[in-house]
Amino acid sequence: MSTLSKAAPDVLQRYYRILAAGPDAFDPDGELRTLLVDDLEFEGPIAGKRTGAAGFCQGVKGFIATVSDLEIIQEVHGADGSAILYDARMPAGIVRLAEFFGFDNGKISTLRIHYDPADYVRQGGH
Predict the structure, then answer these.
(1) pLDDT digit string (tens) for 17-53?
(2) Who has the most CB within 10 Å: 4, 20, 45, 75?
(3) How do the domains of the chain map onto residue ranges?
(4) Residue 43, SS3?
């Protein structure tokens, strides 16, 4: 995995380490959960709009199980949020994703993810 720059907030450094660590290291009630506010607002092309950190942690399990590598392409950080563009190596190929984060008291409060859902499924995502 390519790493985020030192300009990235610690919460994102930890978030992407968890995503790249693989399914054997993942605990939906573990470290990832501590990085999120309870009423996390999530929006993605497959899941739609959802609220709640617990549900997000369960849902991200499938992503972590299928990703073998993440390559950070570009990142932008501000006082209240960050945007990350990266490629995820999936079983059948690479999918490009963009994630937009909002923060509240050092935790992730909003996450909007953008990618081509048909390509994601075609490359082995679930």
Answers:
(1) 999 998 888 988 899 999 999 999 999 999 999 999 9
(2) 4
(3) 10-122
(4) strand
